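Lab notebook, design round three. We kept the backbone fixed and only want residue identities now. Task for the bench partner: fill in a sequence for the structure below.
Input structure tokens:
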């Protein structure tokens, strides 16, 4: 009996020891979680006196050590309002817990900190309440982001509320001052000669009696001038020191620190946005980030203001201006009758203003069926005053010749002298090329990943194929074959060569050689390609080449070898599309587009054409309609070569009628150096 009791005691001690060990491990585990948590974890007694708190709590409340906080009472010392703290304590006592409750706590320096609190009662083993425990999450950054977002939205609404930024300037500056501290703010614009700055808008007390809106001053020797000259952000901590201490404008302002940012509209620097403070070192990179979010919209608003200022000055100047603009400018009444259209309408759509005046329904009919409701609803909202202005509305239209275009439209209410809306006016811009460039960028990203896969596959095949090719050569040397055996052997040789050619195309697609751009005569390159093409076995006498060359074709920066591959592929495709013969047209001309220096190369044929389903995929790698005759890489490589020359390629086709490939290349390629892709 005594032995049994002893054994039982020993066993019990082992159980107690094991459970103690597990409790110790568990305690250590939760202690680590407690100390490493990014959120504040705390324990209090029943009087809300701190019993424990992790390092995150020490950091959040700004105390030097945990011991300092442990001397404090949560309700009396940490809650910014002890009344609120007492109320929350009572809620926890009544309900047993609170979850995600927004509270305002107090740091050691007395500053407020918004937090999210979750808390519940602490109980002992007998279920007696011994205090409180909980988690506190700092909401400072979240609140800051929410505030900035709200302010940015308000600012954008303010900027869109009126065509004249000067009329909304006060509201705009007051809203911006909530997130960017400044005593003075101004907008300066470059004048037409671009050597002077115009004070476009200022805070009421900005320059006192010394400087006013509408005043001009030289950009040279001024901080604002440096901003518009270099297009860079300037943050000056102390205006009395450094390079800008002699700036006459800064001296007149009487400020200690300055922040100036460039205003950019349509890719061009138009002026600067300037902030001044009476305090030294008032601005930071955070202020720059905030202002950069609204600067583009501000620049557009200023641009619109300046545009319509000119319109108001003189009807004649207005007409001269709008007739020179490439964008379509329009005005129509509530009944949909056009009151004004500039000549750009014909350049963009093919329709004359007169056709629209006589038949206003053309405008609705030319809008793509999937976009019609969107455009109609937007115009209705502007006319009815639900929408102050509609900006950057993108939709598709059909031109008179059936061509589909992407356009972007800004629409404004047109008001009479009494301020009543009597119609709309706006600007419509052709953005088709921009859309194509976006698609080209997406295509390039896809091609990069596909190219790597192609290279990997090609390398894996090349080694065993080399062994096969060498073996075939040895067999050809050692064997004497006749009849069907000879034919089979020749087929093996031919197919081995074809596989080798396919692998070479794969590797060319994945890792093309370097590009060496030189000034070249593009007509010579085309003629060379045509000469070799006429010697090719695929070329036959039923095919006629028609060359249409312009007289003023400039020298072009191209890689001669790569661009020759483009012409060769396109011409071979034309031949393949005309097995019974036909005509191939090659046209080269210099494009007469303002601010652009480009040539256009057209390769057209009278072949079988391409179906709409196929034409959408024609530049995709490995897509082919030639089945066993091709790899589907030819046109993908063509597309890449043109893209690497800074150009664009497009294709149009009508089944059983014709196919037209159009290439546009810059005369002076910005990449006119060795380029690896």
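Proposed sequence:
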């Amino acid at each position: 009996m005594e032995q049994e009791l002893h054994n039982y005691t020993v066993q019990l001690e082992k159980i107690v020891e094991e459970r103690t060990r597990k409790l110790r491990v568990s305690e250590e585990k939760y202690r680590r979680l407690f100390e490493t948590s990014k959120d504040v974890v705390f324990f209090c007694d029943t009087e809300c006196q701190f019993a424990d708190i992790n390092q995150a709590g020490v950091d959040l409340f700004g105390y030097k050590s945990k011991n300092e906080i442990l001397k404090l009472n949560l309700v009396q010392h940490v809650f910014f309002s002890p009344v609120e703290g007492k109320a929350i304590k009572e809620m926890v006592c009544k309900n047993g817990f609170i979850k995600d409750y927004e509270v305002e706590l107090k740091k050691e320096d007395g500053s407020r900190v918004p937090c999210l609190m979750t808390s519940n009662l602490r109980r002992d083993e007998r279920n007696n309440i011994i205090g409180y425990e909980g988690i506190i999450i700092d909401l400072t950054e979240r609140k800051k982001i929410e505030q900035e977002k709200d302010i940015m939205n308000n600012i954008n609404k303010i900027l869109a509320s009126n065509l004249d930024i000067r009329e909304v300037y006060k509201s705009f500056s007051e809203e911006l001052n909530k997130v960017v501290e400044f005593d003075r703010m101004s907008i300066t614009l470059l004048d037409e000669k671009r050597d002077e700055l115009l004070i476009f808008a200022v805070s009421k007390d900005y320059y006192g009696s010394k400087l006013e809106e509408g005043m001009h001053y030289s950009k040279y020797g001024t901080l604002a001038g440096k901003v518009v000259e270099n297009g860079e952000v300037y943050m000056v901590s102390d205006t009395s020191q450094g390079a800008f201490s002699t700036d006459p404008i800064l001296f007149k302002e009487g400020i200690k620190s300055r922040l100036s940012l460039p205003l950019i509209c349509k890719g061009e620097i138009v002026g600067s946005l300037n902030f001044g403070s009476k305090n030294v070192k008032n601005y930071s990179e955070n202020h720059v980030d905030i202002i950069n979010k609204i600067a583009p919209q501000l620049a557009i608003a200023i641009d619109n203001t300046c545009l319509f200022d000119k319109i108001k000055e003189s009807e004649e100047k207005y007409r001269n201006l709008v007739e020179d603009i490439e964008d379509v400018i329009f005005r129509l009444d509530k009944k949909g009758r056009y009151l004004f259209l500039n000549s750009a309408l014909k350049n963009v759509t093919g329709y004359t203003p007169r056709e629209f005046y006589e038949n206003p329904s053309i405008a609705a009919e030319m809008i793509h069926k999937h976009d019609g409701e969107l455009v109609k609803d937007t115009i209705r909202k502007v006319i009815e005053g639900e929408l102050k202005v509609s900006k950057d509305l993108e939709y598709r239209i059909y031109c008179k010749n059936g061509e589909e275009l992407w356009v972007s439209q800004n629409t404004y209410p047109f008001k009479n002298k009494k301020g009543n809306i009597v119609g709309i006016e706006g600007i419509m811009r052709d953005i088709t090329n921009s859309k194509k460039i976006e698609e080209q960028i997406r295509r390039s990203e896809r091609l990069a990943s596909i190219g790597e896969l192609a290279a990997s596959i090609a390398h894996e095949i090349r080694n065993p194929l080399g062994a096969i090719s060498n073996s075939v050569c040895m067999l050809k040397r050692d064997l004497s074959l006749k009849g069907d055996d000879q034919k089979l052997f020749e087929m093996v040789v031919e197919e081995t060569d074809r596989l080798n050619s396919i692998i070479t195309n794969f590797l060319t697609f994945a890792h093309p050689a370097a590009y060496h751009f030189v000034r070249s005569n593009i007509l010579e390159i085309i003629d060379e390609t045509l000469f070799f093409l006429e010697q090719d076995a695929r070329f036959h006498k039923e095919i006629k080449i028609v060359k249409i060359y312009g007289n003023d074709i400039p020298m072009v920066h191209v890689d001669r070898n790569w661009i020759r591959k483009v012409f060769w592929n396109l011409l071979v495709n034309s031949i393949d599309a005309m097995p019974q013969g036909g005509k191939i047209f090659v046209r080269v001309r210099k494009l007469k587009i303002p601010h652009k220096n480009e040539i256009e190369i057209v390769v057209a044929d009278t072949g079988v054409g391409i179906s709409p389903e196929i034409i959408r995929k024609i530049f995709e790698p490995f897509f082919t309609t030639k089945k066993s005759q091709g790899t589907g890489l030819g046109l993908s490589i063509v597309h890449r070569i043109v893209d690497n020359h800074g150009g664009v390629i497009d294709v149009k086709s009508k089944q059983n009628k014709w196919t037209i490939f159009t290439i546009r290349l810059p005369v002076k390629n910005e990449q006119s150096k060795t380029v690896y892709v």
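Keep this in mind before ordering anything: The two ends are 90 Å apart (CA to CA).
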